[in-house]
Amino acid sequence: MAVIEEIPPIMVLEENAGLRIVFRFRNRLWGTITLAAGLAIIGAFGWYQLRYNNWSWQVGLFSLFGLLLLYGSLYSFTADQFLVVNGVGRSIRFHKKNLYGRVDWERRGDQFKEIHVFRAKASRGRAKNWSILLVGGDGTELFLGENEFGSFSREGAIELAGNVSRLTGIQVHAEES
From CA 89, how far away is CA 21, in angstroms rounded? Predict the structure, then answer.
């Protein structure tokens, strides 16, 4: 059992053309966001340390958080991840290359359990956005979406999941509102 389990980031709809749908992790967007946030946090607390010469556990904790954000930007900038839905072969091809290694596979639609459309639980009830989860027969789970946050509406999520289903034969299971 791994100490840290990697959860692949959400892949966003990039191309939807007839018999081919492509989802991709937008690594440059997330790399830039985490780089800017990490540098800002480290810079702010570095300035505080130099100005007030007051080292405390809060400064250390926030600096550690800034370093984790910088690690996240390194992960994002080096990551290449996409999923191609092929309607001709009724298959799904997945590619992931990042700091942890490389994974490439292609599977037929009948090797997947379902496409699950749901709203995640949030601290105050249900999340606003809808999630699309591709569930493999071996337990593999990959998140898909219209944007980095999933899908803004249930109808949009069901439509996108239905397009994948139409090309691969994977059944869609959609939760109610």
Answer: 13
Interatomic CA distance for residues 29 and 88, integer angstroms: 31
**What is the predicted pLDDT for the residue at 4?**
61
Q: Read off the pLDDT band of 57 (50, 70, 90).
A: confident
Task: Fill in the amino acid letter for 82.
Answer: F
Q: Strand order of the sheet with strand 80-86?
A: 101-108, 91-98, 80-86, 20-24, 11-17, 141-145, 131-136, 112-118, 172-174
Cβ contacts of 77-80, under 8 Å, gap ≥ 24 = 77/27, 77/28, 77/31, 77/35, 78/27, 79/9, 79/25, 79/27, 80/25, 80/27
Check: CB of residue 145 under 8 Å from CB of residue 133. Answer: no
Question: pLDDT tier at 53 (50, 70, 90 boundaries)?
Answer: confident
E strands, the chain, where?
Answer: 11-17, 20-24, 80-86, 91-98, 101-108, 112-118, 121-122, 125-126, 131-136, 141-145, 172-174
Two tokens at 123? 């601290």
- Token duo for residue 27: 């690594």
Distance CA 27, CA 170 (A): 28
DSSP-derived secondary structure letter, 151: B
